[in-house]
Amino acid sequence: MQAKWMRKRSHSIKSPLRWIGLVVTAAVCIFTFNTTAMAALEGSAGNTIIRNTVTVNYEDGGGTAQTPISATIDVTVNTIDVAPTVVSFSPSPGTTDGTGSTETYDVVIRTNSNGPAVITLAATDGSATNITLDTANPPSLASGGTLFLGATVVDPTDSNGTSTIADGTNITLEVPNDGGLPSDTAATGGSSGDGVINGLTAGDTVYLHDGTDYFGPFTIPASGVSDPATGSGTTAQPGSLTLTNDSGSDISITIAPGWMILEAKTDTMTVTQGVVAVPTTAASWNTTVTATMNGNDGSGTVTTNATGAVLTVSKYVRNVTDPNGSGTAQTISVSGSSYTFFESGVSGDPGDTLEYALVIENGSLGATQDVIATDPVPTYTTLSTFTGGYGGSSGTGSGSDVFAVVDDGNDSYPMTVADTDNESGTLGAANAEGTAAGSTLTFYLGDGGEDSSDTGGTLQTGESITVVYRVTID
Q1: Mind listing the pLDDT tens digit for each residue in 374-392?
Q2: Three-state DSSP class for residue 307
Q3: What is the largest CA-CA distance in the chain?
């Protein structure tokens, strides 16, 4: 009987693997789970490696401890598709001057996802008021319509807790290991130690998000990324991110595991003005930018105020020698003095001096540019020039002689017959082709008008400019 029992015992000792298998199957309390790897938190980062290792300790039949055996399983957290945020437009609102002019905006896009992903962008015009949109030139984005944004979360190993991060100073946060997968431009590719962790790298702008509020912006400085290999042990070694507070003020926060670290990028959008219907009435349109992450849309809208530009010109005359006129009278101030001009009904004798006034006004909502007025010396007259200033004694017409005055209601400036001499930086310049009938008088009017470059100046909305010159009836 004893021999039979010994044979059974001996047989049992010779089959240790079978014994171990039974123990593992029965889950007797001689093994332990190592759960020191990062737990799967709500809002865990995409690409986070959840590593779980079972370890079995045992002794042989003689009571000698054997090398523990283990088995490890890794699970990777998925990146969740969440609508991005169109954070801001700068400037807002924008303004364009003149048909066909453009406005350029800086558009900030921020991810709200738990991991890196490509965000697609689209921009559309709409809600036009008093303007026909330029459908041939729709809004364009410098990015071409795609941005790659990274994101991660604060790891449970982080111990910062309550922190005051002074403006311009750094804080280093532990973040989950990303397995080396994302590069700085795509969710695939990349490797451990490449200076990119979950799509975040030096130079990126990020915000901290506690589930309710956003804090930042922060910038990742050079060498601010630790991207270690996952290793073969019982935990997936966390990486780290160093963030510089670029918000312009101190930030006091209590950082907790699971806080999101979200990248924001700035794209450039250009919109083109169409045709304003009524230049004296306000015009505007809206441009909407839509940011999409795999079907989840976030959007923002900016208004562009458009201004049309239209000038009006009126011409008047008075007889300086023998004042008369039966038409509508108009009082015009020149060099601080007021004179009565007429739209019609003025007559004169040979030898009488006539004075013409050109009144150019910008009554629209937009600035006009390159304003150039030309007026011929009337038939049967000779242009008057003045050696003693406008209104002084008549001369023979040398190159430095004055033939006209330009006045904007605040300042006035005499204009000479000489070509390529720039008279006034704010009122413009002029020249006379000659003094005989038919000679062309050219006025480069407004701010920046230049005779030397034959360039007209600018008249802002509400500005008016008056030109006067004299002729003698032959």
Answers
A1: 999 999 999 998 765 565 4
A2: strand
A3: 159
